[in-house]
Amino acid sequence: MSARKNASSRRATWLAFGLVALAAFSASAQPQTDNIESTQSELDFSVQQNAQVPHDATVYSEPDFDQDAEATRAYKSALFTLSNLTAHPPSHTHNVFSQPTTTTPSLLSALLPNPQGQGPLGSAIRIALKLRQQFSLFRLRRDEEMRGKAIKVVDLLQHSAELGNLDALFTLGYISLFPPSSHFPSDPKLAYDSLLHHAALTGNASSQALLAFFHATGYADVVPIDQAQALLYYTFAAQGGHKGAQMALGYRYWSGISTVEDCGRAVEWYEAAADEAMSMFLSGPPGGQTLPQTATRLSDLDGGVFGPGASVASTGLNVIKPAVKAGLAQTAGETWDDVLEYYIFNADRGETDFAYKLGKIYYQGSIYSSAGGIGSGSEGVGRVPQDFHQAQFYFLQIARQIWPRDPTNPLQHSAPGYKAENVKHPGFAPKSAAYLGRMYLRGEGVKQDYAMAMMWFERGAEFEDRECHNLLGVMWRDGLVSGRQDMKTALVHFTRAAGQELAEAHVNLGKYNYYRGEFKLAITYFEAAVRFGSTFEAHFYLAKIHTLNMRVANEGFAAGFCASAVSFFKLVAERGVWDDDLLTDAEAAWYSGTERGKEIAILKWWVAAERGSEMAQNNLAYVLDQDRSMLRLTRFAPIEASNDTALLALTQWTRSAAQRNIDALVKVGDYYYHGLGVPDEPEALRWEKAAKYYQSAADTQLSALAMWNLGWMYENGIGVPQDFHLAKRHYDMAVETNSEAYLPVLLSLVKLYGRSLWYTLQGGKDGLNLWKYDADKMSVAERARLKQEIDSGSQDTSQKDGGAQPVPHKEERAVEESEDDGKWYIGKASEDFRRRRQGEAARTAAAEEEDDLYQWARERRNAENERDTDFGPEDYFEAAIRGGHQRQEEVDEFTETLLLVALCGLVALLIYVRTRIVRRTREQEQEPQQDREGQRDLGLFPPPGDPARQEWNIAH
Predict the structure, then answer these.
(1) How far apart are CA 659 and CA 655, in angstroms?
(2) Cα angle at 535 between 533 and 536, to 5 degrees?
(3) The whole model's pTM is what?
């Protein structure tokens, strides 16, 4: 009996030991697949696209039942193995700051200290975990096993493709181009051959779109660059309904890449892509599919292409962009785990506002929400795991403070006993009711129940919550609850929500008028929705209206309608990427931390860039940038600049700049200045082109760096004629545009005045005056001369005021004044005079619409400057400090600067002299004291030098 008990105890001991060991190694048991994307879902989608082609086409001329059965068996086996390989959670997350584990906490992990904790213990645990991941024998065995399964998948696909399975042929080409994990080999040549064979047999649009990418870019040198062949494949794929090819074709016709610019054809292809995106959006629950989270510019996380302060992306109003704020949080050492922990801590203490924000974070799956309301989506830069159940928990916790119970029949919630009495300040309860109703309306985390949704919306609408009013309008409009369909009631709810500036409510009112044919009123609502943050539906319907206007307007107005339609359709097509979100996949791959991941990220950004995505173009150029090192082109350079890589980066910078990326425009000028990625040509010609790009960026009044670059070029006579006055003017404009440029501009002005003084002493003329204020004024003739000097590179000067103005070229008539700029009318002289005083150019209506975004940004920036004090513009003392030289007499600013520098030097000299005096005084005081100590009365103790002194010490 005792032996049996011992055996049972031993088995229990071994079982317990096995459970502990399993718990300890549960994290390491998950394979490091470096999963780049949800490969299985993409392959399933591609296979569905392939299903539209005839599957009876085969490589072999004689059908064989056994052969077909074997091909099908091999293909299904390959898909089964592939699904097992890609079913594991990825080793990285989309969070750019932290990599939280996705595995279930084990028993041992609950007992050990937190590996993400602070201090030496947490650091030691993290190092140990990394070492275990790198050198664990179990890990090596798992990697070897996964690699073997990957080889099995490729072999089965090849075998099935050889037997005539066309789906296997496409899948083989796809995973060879986009390996689903690091265990799969990357073989662009095999991918191209497989896709080419598949396209030849089936005419499949997906294969043709990828073949077009190979020919457009020459990727991996598989085939040479052939834009004509790429355009042909893109056309075939677009005709076959491939949305990405339609976007690429529309972008090429819009930008004139390998074809003539044709706005009309660009509208056609972008409209087709936008229609597909809208149909997918409407296929979702009431209110449409949840919009994909926005992608992120890598440069914004670093404060812009040129860093914080120097980049337009991180100055002015751009400072509040989520990506910029996330970059600042990263620099401060914050992680999203810290944010969530802080919110959870306060929510558990009963803080209602923290509980509400925490519910929002879990609902939208991001720290940052997009402007425009719940329906506008969220920002991908703050991506966290989405959890509808946690969101419902926190929202319900808040709502129960007002509505403690729910009735059996949700539509009878107004009966007594279901609502707290005498509620004057509901707090976040109405907003929480809106989220709860939305979850029941769409079946998010709960079973879809329209009655429950209406109950929560009506509860929130009692306190005039805008989201509740809007979604109540949707339910009354669509009749989602039996017996409750009334368009008038729906319009009442929409109007109340729109009165609170909800973008989605404006969209619903706009759609009502759009389908009634009242396009003018619809445009008003849609434009208001765009102002309030709508990023999808409003753009789509505005594009539709502009397309209709384009087709009925005369030639003079059609171009403007066409440009607007292309822009709006492009935004819709790029946002509606539920089936093929290349930017999100690329971002995830980039932050996987592996070389394979970065290769896949660059490839996906490249594919998206060919489709016209400005963000993809910016990211691709940023990671390939050959001009980021301060030691560039020196023997201390950390990398050797590659002209091929620089050429690709310059191409992407140029395309990004063409889509109003001002930092990219400055970057193009840098590439021409340094000779990176440009053809071999004289330096003078390159510098002239660089000056043109800098001038284009400076004309936006947003880039202080472009203005500083122009000032330096005028100071040194590089790319433009040397002109100290124009140099100073551009330096002054730089510090006016961005106050953070004060120090570099100050140093540049000191050097400029020094050079001007030396130039004057050598007999030069037209130097800067050290004792008289150099008014920052530019006449019409000077502006015309400036533009001619930059565009033509000539060094001819024009006459000053009162003389004949130079005649600009035909394409350069956007100067500030022109005699034949339109029909004259009463009041035009006063209007032109005001424009001259404000330093604005007289533009045509089309040009005004083109630059409206920049003007809006300038006005907002000036408004922020006026609000940076408690008193505002009425405080005349502050006004004098901020810009009062407009009402002051002429003041020599440089003399004041020199005076300040002299005073600083004098103070430093006085401090040095005082220090020397104090030191000498102390030394003089110490010398008599030492003499007195040497002569003081020692009593019975022998004086120094007496032999008895040592004997006295020994005695004691």
Answers:
(1) 7
(2) 140
(3) 0.74
